[in-house]
Amino acid sequence: MRNFIEKVEKNEHLQYEEMIEASRLMFDEATELQTIADFLIALSKKGETANEVAALATVMKSFALKLNEPAGNYMDNCGTGGDGLKSFNISTTSAFVLAGAGASVAKHGNRKISSAAGSSDVLEALGIDTTISSEASMDLLAREGLTFLYAPSVHPKLKRIGQVRQQIGKPTIFNLIGPLTNPIELAAQYTGINRPDFTMEYATVLQMLGRERAIIVCGALGMDEASLAGKNSFVLVDKGDLIPFTLTPEDVGLRAAPVTAIRGGDAFENAKIMRSVLQGERSPFFDTVIFNAGVGLYANAMVGTIQEGVKLAADSILSGKALAKLESVIDFSNNARKQEVV
């Protein structure tokens, strides 16, 4: 490991195979925590590359729990988080909208890290148990076309890394790879990052990981979602092509709004916001969700344009289908919990 640290400290990028080896060493319990910290800090100072991110994601996914998912074409809409803008749980709300529109969603998520409420926190506030067994989680996916994968449960080897990240206290390469390590094979993906300078690199990573179709966004003000607050930068991964483009909310028929209009709170406050959106209450919260769900539907090739995606997302909510998905998942979770207790 020391050789890799020295190379990175000289501002030299690691080749893909070198990063594969370094990543395996990071997950090896014989490697000292301080050595892992030194490596992550050096990598962060140098600046990560597509090869390095893709290699780490590949190794981490290889250690993930095997889920035996039912046959299907699945997508994820999890972002990296870390934008510090204190928005409500946009991608979690959008997951119900996507499923209501007919997409099959396996959403990767975690508890709060940089926000007041992470995906798992708000789901639990809604009455959804994110720690149900993997068998129950896959049963939910088969029944409802939607499931939530709690990262610490599906990535057991992350525990030691978590200690190191806490010790460092600053973003590392692990802040980039959450959306890349879903243990389920994804046909499509919509994800966001808070680094406008890295969108094309991130698109390259998704291409390297085998995504035939995906969209990456870095929103206005560095939001890891499409934002109503201005111009959003995207890259479409379409088989062999990487296509950058920009969109404002007005481009898809939505009104601009400041980031302050979509501020969230704790898990219970965000659960109330989610319910208000899924019940069809028009607001910047609603428009932000249909904007992002619309992009997700386009990423999943269910519509021909993002504008069509926004309309289909609005219909998923206004028809009651998205809310019905939420209620079905809550009911399933309650039944699964009772069966596990018995």
From TrEMBL:
5-phospho-alpha-D-ribose 1-diphosphate binds at residues 79, 82-83, 87, 89-92, 107-115, 119. It catalyses: N-(5-phospho-beta-D-ribosyl)anthranilate + diphosphate = 5-phospho-alpha-D-ribose 1-diphosphate + anthranilate. GO terms for molecular function: anthranilate phosphoribosyltransferase activity; magnesium ion binding. It is an enzyme of class 2 (transferase). Mg(2+) 1 binds at residues 91, 225. Binds 2 magnesium ions per monomer. GO terms for biological process: L-tryptophan biosynthetic process. Keywords: Amino-acid biosynthesis, Aromatic amino acid biosynthesis, Glycosyltransferase, Magnesium, Metal-binding, Transferase, Tryptophan biosynthesis. InterPro entries: Anthranilate_Pribosyl_Tfrase, Glycosyl_Trfase_fam3, Glycosyl_Trfase_fam3_N_dom, Glycosyl_Trfase_fam3_N_dom_sf, Nuc_phospho_transferase. Residues 73-323 form the Glycosyl transferase family domain. GO terms for cellular component: cytosol. Its EC number is 2.4.2.18. Its cofactor is Mg(2+). Residues 3-64 form the Glycosyl transferase family 3 N-terminal domain. Mg(2+) 2 binds at residues 224-225. PANTHER family: ANTHRANILATE PHOSPHORIBOSYLTRANSFERASE. Catalyzes the transfer of the phosphoribosyl group of 5-phosphorylribose-1-pyrophosphate (PRPP) to anthranilate to yield N-(5'-phosphoribosyl)-anthranilate (PRA). Homodimer. This is Anthranilate phosphoribosyltransferase. It comes from Psychrobacillus lasiicapitis.
